[in-house]
Write a structure and sequence with these properties.
This protein has helices at 6-19, 28-38, 43-54, 57-67, 76-85, 91-104, 109-116, 122-133, 142-156, 162-165. The chain is 63% helix and 0% strand. The longest helix has 15 residues, at 142-156. The chain is an all-alpha fold. Helix 3 packs parallel to helix 9. The chain folds into 2 domains: 25-70 and 141-165, no CATH class; 76-133. The radius of gyration is 23 Å and the shape is elongated.
């Protein structure tokens, strides 16, 4: 049995990193592939995509600027109106309201739970529970993962580039309930 000293291992690892040749700049297909990986469930592949994007800011910044879009703030009045519409006498209006709430996804989860706690009508309760079942706040959606990971790549590019991406806004994660 043998033992390696930590400083020897660190020196070996650092020499391997220092001697590695820089990767060539990504082409548009590789940028698209990285964009796809950012939304994936494989964290290792997503991390590699983050590193590739961060390592090539000249190519990645324009790409991310065209792909990341500000997410509109959740309109509380609209959510209140949609929740009230779940009790409408008109079936189509109830269906439309449920679809719209489902489309909002994670950000409405807290409001849905609060409304369920107020003992709504059986119809509204059933529909709110259905909306809530479609929202798994423990596991972020692929869009949320993609945006959070893209912002991480931007942050890794360094603060000197902050002005280049400060107007890009990722989706807000729901506040802890």
């Amino acid at each position: 049995m043998f033992s390696l000293q930590p400083s020897l291992v660190l020196a070996f690892l650092l020499s391997a990193v220092a001697s590695a040749e820089p990767a060539p700049p990504p082409d548009p297909k590789e940028l698209d592939a990285d964009w796809t990986e950012l939304a994936g469930s494989d964290a290792v592949r997503a991390y590699r995509a983050i590193c590739r994007l961060a390592g090539h800011p000249k190519e990645a910044l324009p790409f991310l600027r065209t792909h990341l879009r500000p997410v509109p703030m959740l309109d509380e009045k609209a959510v209140t109106r949609l929740i009230a519409s779940l009790d409408s006498e008109n079936f189509e209006e109830r269906e439309k309201a449920q679809r719209e709430l489902e489309r909002f996804g994670e950000p409405v989860g807290i409001r849905v739970r609060k409304t369920l706690a107020t003992a709504p009508s059986p119809e509204a309760k059933r529909r709110l529970e259905t909306v809530l079942q479609g929202i798994n706040e423990d596991v972020p959606s692929s869009d949320t993962l993609r945006h959070v990971r893209a912002v991480e790549a931007l942050e890794r590019m360094g603060t000197k580039r902050r002005g280049a991406w400060s107007k890009i806004s990722p989706p807000a994660l729901p506040a802890p309930g």
